[in-house]
């Protein structure tokens, strides 16, 4: 047992040492550039999947392994670590930093929730839509972290209102002389218990609040074997309270991921795919912000709505009659929700000058992305006909991003004497604030993936892989796509999304070329499915954030996530076989691909 405990403690160190040693026969025996590149790829992939080393550190391994093996020079490898992707990421993070700093995200989220109303199902949908919208422009992690405190406050108030109503009803049914007094005592006792519990656990009001009311009901239920009918009915609502908390948490975790699917900047996997595709197929200019939005927005909307129905049915029951019933009188739960949301919105006050400027720049960046090269009409990039291909989405992102460092955060204000009051010049965001939001680990991780992809090309490893994958062309195309989707969906549950897509893109691109189909037929579904990390708290940071609030068990997440994984893969398969086909003319072998003899007998 002592040996096992030592192995458990030093398992990462053992993995770091043993992985290169056990794989070392590959380059020593075969002694080809393909084998040496494969050795590097396997070592990095294993470290990424197991996270034995930090992801960014593992991504730096090709920077010294490729020169040592003679695959690429140091200067060539170094140039792979910084690409157009990084410039686009910098521009997007400038926008995200300003949105977070000036609380524009909170105003948008609360306003969206206020628009849909406070009925439980619609309230849940409102939070899902607002979180998904934020994750379209911010990182999924940031979107979940921003919205979750608001959801927690609303959920706690809903349960408190339900408990107050139940307690009052029970007191009246038992013939209590002063039900209001008993209710106050019950609430005070609960608040005292909850405060002590928070002090012990070290949590604040916005993280991991404990619903003491539900726990008190559990204790009472265990103590009393024969409950009166009113008490039995009240105890029966425990599952209802638990369901409210669980469904509110899960809807934020999943909507943050789903929203990121719809824009190139929404998640790192989309950015990695775009850079990989444009680097591997430079003659194809079909993937841009507008084309990606057109293909992925319907997918995101359908998955979001089906996920809403699934979560509602799984935890609360899907009652169409009550959902669409028009009633002017609000229940205690609805009154509590409305009160909290209105109070939170009032705290924000009127829209400030920095919020207004941030919103204007956000709209301007979006317009520039959509109108750069829409395809059906000439875009603004056609104003530069001699070097139109030089202008990318990163160009617009950087132009707007730099403005955040120039535009002042305060305007001149006049005193009672009519004189202008001078403020020290401070831009909308500072470099220190930008650095705190910039995901440097993802930037280096993606750079390592590009270096691996370039090494596979130079060493001819990708050609070797393509030749070995040629027999797969005998399978129907839809089955090849489905297998690819299922594999990446499974792997991404235990590995980071960015690492998963970085590993599989250099494999799936040669596969598409080998079976003589448009690479987009396989790469688009695989990229979308890489984001479907819904099963476990460790699958992605959004899941971990909501799990940390203490309302979910692992089985809750597995049960809900499995259904959404199935929904996601099914919708992606439907999309790639229907409306995505005419967008990129997928059934036609593109001219920007090498003309390889077809082995796809069963065809399309």
Summarize this structure briefly.
Belongs to the SLC13A/DASS transporter (TC 2.A.47) family. NADC subfamily. This protein is 70% helix and 1% strand.
Characterization of the model:
It is a single chain. The chain has 604 residues and is mainly α. It has a domain at 82-100 and 358-438. The chain is 70% helix and 1% strand. The chain contains 30 helices and two strands. It has helices at 2-9, 11-23, 25-30, 33-50, 55-59, 61-69, 74-80, 84-101, 104-116, 120-137, 140-173, 179-201, 212-223, 229-236, 238-260, 268-280, 289-315, 320-323, 332-348, 353-371, 393-403, 431-437, 440-458, 461-469, 477-491, 497-514, 520-530, 541-547, 554-577, 580-584; strands at 413-414, 420-421. Strands 1-2 form a two-stranded antiparallel ribbon. Helix 23 packs parallel to helix 26 and helix 25 (477-491) packs antiparallel against helix 29 (554-577). It is globular. The relative contact order is 0.13.
Radius of gyration: 27 Å
* Class by SSE composition: mainly alpha
Span of the ends, CA to CA: 57 Å
Fraction in beta strands? under 5%
Number of helices: 30
Most strands sheet: 2 strands, antiparallel
Enumerate the spans where pLDDT stays under 50 for 5 or more consecutive residues: 176-225, 598-604
Report the average pLDDT across residues.
78
Q: Assign an overall shape.
A: globular
What is the number of beta strands?
2
Q: Strand order, biggest sheet?
A: 1-2
What helical percentage do the residues reach? 55-70%
């Amino acid at each position: 047992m002592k040996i096992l405990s030592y192995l458990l403690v030093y398992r990462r160190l053992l993995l770091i040492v043993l992985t290169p040693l056990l794989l070392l026969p590959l380059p020593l025996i075969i002694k080809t550039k393909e084998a040496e590149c494969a050795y590097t790829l396997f070592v990095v992939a294993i470290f990424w999947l197991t996270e034995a080393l930090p992801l960014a550190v593992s991504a730096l391994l090709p920077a010294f392994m490729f020169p040592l093996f003679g695959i690429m020079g140091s200067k060539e490898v170094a140039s792979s670590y910084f690409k157009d992707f990084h410039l686009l990421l910098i521009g997007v993070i400038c926008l995200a930093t300003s949105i977070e700093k000036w609380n524009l995200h909170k105003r948008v989220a609360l306003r969206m929730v206020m628009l849909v109303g406070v009925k439980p199902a619609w309230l849940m949908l409102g939070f899902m839509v607002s979180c998904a919208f934020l994750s379209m422009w911010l990182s999924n992690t940031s979107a979940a972290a921003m919205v979750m405190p608001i959801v927690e406050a609303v959920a706690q108030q809903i349960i408190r209102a339900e408990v107050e109503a139940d307690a009052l009803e029970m007191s009246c049914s038992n013939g209590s002389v002063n039900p209001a007094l008993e209710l106050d005592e019950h609430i005070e006792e609960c608040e005292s218990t909850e405060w002590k519990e928070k002090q012990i656990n070290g949590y604040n009001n916005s993280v991991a609040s404990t619903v003491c009311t539900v726990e008190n009901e559990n204790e009472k239920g265990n103590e009393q074997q024969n409950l009166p009918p009113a008490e039995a009915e009240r105890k029966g609502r425990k599952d209802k309270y638990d369901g409210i908390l669980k469904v509110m948490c899960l809807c934020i975790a999943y909507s943050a991921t789903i929203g990121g699917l719809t824009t190139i900047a929404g998640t790192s996997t989309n950015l990695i795919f775009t850079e990989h595709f444009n680097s591997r197929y430079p003659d194809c200019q079909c993937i841009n912000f507008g084309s990606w939005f057109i293909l992925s927005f319907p997918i995101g909307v359908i998955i979001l709505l089906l996920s809403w129905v699934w979560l509602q049915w799984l935890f609360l029951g899907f009652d169409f009659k009550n959902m669409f019933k028009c009633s002017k009188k609000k229940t205690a739960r609805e009154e509590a929700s409305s009160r909290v949301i209105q109070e939170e919105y009032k705290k924000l006050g009127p829209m400030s000058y920095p919020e207004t400027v941030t919103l204007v720049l956000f709209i301007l960046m979006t317009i520039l992305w959509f109108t750069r090269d829409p395809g059906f009409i000439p875009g603004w990039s056609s104003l530069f006909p001699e070097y139109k291909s030089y202008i990318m989405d990163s160009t617009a992102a950087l132009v707007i991003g730099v403005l955040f460092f120039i535009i002042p955060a305060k305007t001149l204000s006049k005193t009672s004497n009519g004189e202008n009051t001078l403020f020290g010049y401070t831009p909308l965001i500072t470099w220190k604030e930008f650095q705190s939001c910039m995901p440097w680990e993802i930037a280096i991780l993606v750079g390592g993936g590009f270096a691996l992809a370039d090494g596979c090309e130079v060493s001819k490893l990708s050609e070797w892989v393509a030749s070995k994958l040629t027999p797969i062309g005998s399978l129907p195309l839809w089955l090849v796509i489905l297998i690819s989707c299922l594999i990446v969906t499974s792997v991404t549950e235990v590995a980071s999304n960015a690492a998963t897509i970085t590993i599989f893109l250099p494999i799936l691109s040669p596969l598409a070329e080998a079976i003589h189909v448009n690479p987009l037929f396989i790469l688009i579904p695989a990229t979308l499915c890489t984001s479907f990390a819904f099963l476990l708290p460790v699958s992605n940071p959004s899941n971990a954030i909501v799990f940390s609030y203490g309302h979910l068990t692992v089985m809750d997440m597995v049960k809900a996530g499995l259904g959404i994984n199935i929904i996601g893969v099914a919708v992606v398969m439907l999309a790639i076989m229907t409306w995505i086909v005419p967008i990129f003319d997928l059934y036609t072998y593109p001219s920007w691909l090498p003309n390889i003899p077809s082995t796809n007998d069963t065809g399309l």
